[in-house]
Write a structure and sequence with these properties.
The structure is a single chain. The chain is α+β, with helices and mostly antiparallel strands. It has one domain. The chain is 32% helix and 14% strand. A 3-stranded antiparallel β-sheet has the order 1-2-3. A 3-stranded antiparallel β-sheet has the order 4-5-6.
């Protein structure tokens, strides 16, 4: 019983991404659209303080990013995946997330979830 409670707490801590408008995904730290992480969208949906914190970290790639729940999205590939890791063959290993790929980039994606 204690283990089941711990599992539920861990799952509750993993926040799902939200899509406040078509083509936008946000977690509690960033918002992105099909062009990448967006300061304007982050300010609009998460507030000026959150956006200032993210964008004060210096230059970083706005087109390949991992949300707080582990979903990785790459604007160049126009795909979101379950994780950001590479295999020994140099190819990404994370399964494509059809759900988040559709929400961010529109259209259809080949995999589920």
């Amino acid at each position: 019983m204690l283990l089941a409670g711990a599992t539920l707490s861990a799952q509750a801590g993993q926040q799902a991404l939200r899509s406040p408008e078509r083509g936008v995904l946000c977690d509690r730290y960033i918002c992105a659209n099909e062009k990448g992480i967006s300061r304007a969208l982050t300010e609009k949906y998460l507030g000026q303080r959150v956006a200032a914190k993210v964008f004060s970290q210096g230059d970083f790639d706005l087109t390949a990013f991992t949300f707080a729940n582990g979903i990785f999205c790459d604007v160049k590939e126009r795909l979101c995946r379950q994780d950001r890791y590479y295999g020994a063959d140099g190819k990404r290993t994370g399964a494509v997330s059809g759900k988040y790929t559709r929400l961010l980039f529109g259209g259809s994606a080949g995999a589920t979830q």
